[in-house]
Structure prediction request, 295 residues.
Amino acid sequence: MGRVNALYLAAAVIFGGATVAQAADFLPPRPQLQEPSRVAALETSGWYLRGDIGMSVDQSAQWDMVPGRLLGSAGYNPTAYGPSKAHVSNNVFVGLGFGYQVNSWFRADITGEYRGASRFSSNAELTFDDTAGTTTVLRTFNRGDLSSIVGLVNGYIDLGTWHGVTPYVGAGVGIARNKIDGMVDQGYFVSTGVAPATGTTGGFYGAGAKTNFAWALMAGLGYDVSSRLKLELGYRYLNAGKATTGALTCFGVPGCGNTYLVTKKNENHDIKIGMRWMLSDSAPVMEDMPLVRKY
Prediction:
């Protein structure tokens, strides 16, 4: 009887050990460290070409005579001179350039543009006395063409992108070569006093050009057509500096001398449409995600 109990006890021990060993096979595996995941981010830097076309919707210029009709001469004693603000018609401009997208928020480019001829017109009134006691009031009307070639170095700050639309602001500095040609001078005079008279006057200015400092402020919206093509709609304030004519030649009017018509300030408010073409596709750059452990 003792031997039978011993056999039962041995069998129970063997069976229990096998059960424990089999249960160990169902335990979860030992934790393994995962490789950090990596995600792709767009690389926004790179060279680009650009083209622009637009219109100056509001131009203005302040002008004066240099050295001026008030210098006087023999038998000519000017007493008053009042130029008016010049009117400059709208014009169309086209531009080309190249630049570099430094990162997702800053870019810079160099642009050159030709601004087509605007119709430049103004008028003035001149009063003078001669030595014989005659006072003459002369009213003149000037008209001609004003064109410019402008080169700028520009910087832009992109303010973020929403649904492919990127607002931006920018500024630029450079030079402008402004040219006035085809300028004519027409008018009439009324004389009172010892020798009253009326009549017409005329003359013309030679062509003239002046190169000076120019600067601009810009704002607008960009749109991502594709990874390479960007379209822009923008506004720009451009101060193109001074412009000058050649010397004035008058027909039968004293006091002309070596007079020039000079614009003291040439301001432009531009609306333009632009295109930027990236020279390479935006490249994916892998960025490491934070290490995550799971057990």
